[in-house]
Amino acid sequence: DAMVIQNPRYQVTQFGKPVTLSCSQTLNHNVMYWYQQKSSQAPKLLFHYYDKDFNNEADTPDNFQSRRPNTSFCFLDIRSPGLGDAAMYLCATSRARTDIYTFGSGTRLTVV
Amino acid sequence: ELKVEQNPLFLSMQEGKNYTIYCNYSTTSDRLYWYRQDPGKSLESLFVLLSNGAVKQEGRLMASLDTKARLSTLHITAAVHDLSATYFCGKGAQKLVFGQGTRLTINP
Lengths: 112, 108
Prior knowledge:
Chain A is an all-beta fold and about 110 residues long. Chain A is built from no helices and 11 strands. By secondary structure, chain B is mostly beta strands.
């Protein structure tokens, strides 16, 4: 089945140690999004790629970076995780900016 | 800037009762989304409402869209415990902006 896959499901990282979360899709969608969702809050968009075009949200900290080496894969890099970065990270895709969004199962990040 | 607001934020209800969750948004755009989220899980798509007057129903849930009032509603009919979850509405033409979420608890 075509889907959006996030790895790993759970990630524990040390304070200040770089960590990478991964998202892959078999839908061949143009757009890939990364959302951060903290406990009891709504998902908040960090950035998105429209094909190779990177779109950063104005309030996304510089600590967060993203890479999209090809259509299928997108990575979220956190350069120096702090305790406040502990959250669920959701990857989503869409065929165009106004189309249906498909969400992955999420990666829950714990910072110790 | 697009703002999406839901109310109520918390809702505790008895099984068998009816209730409505409201979603207001600040700017016009073409689609309104409703999602369900269980604790520790990702978002599950419930409805996509495409145009003014759209109504969609799935089981005990019914969603509607009034673009003139900039309002969408999610109506729960004869609630059952399995519907306990957090419900988000979302809107946006180029990126999806979510409401704060409504945490729904249905008690036996």
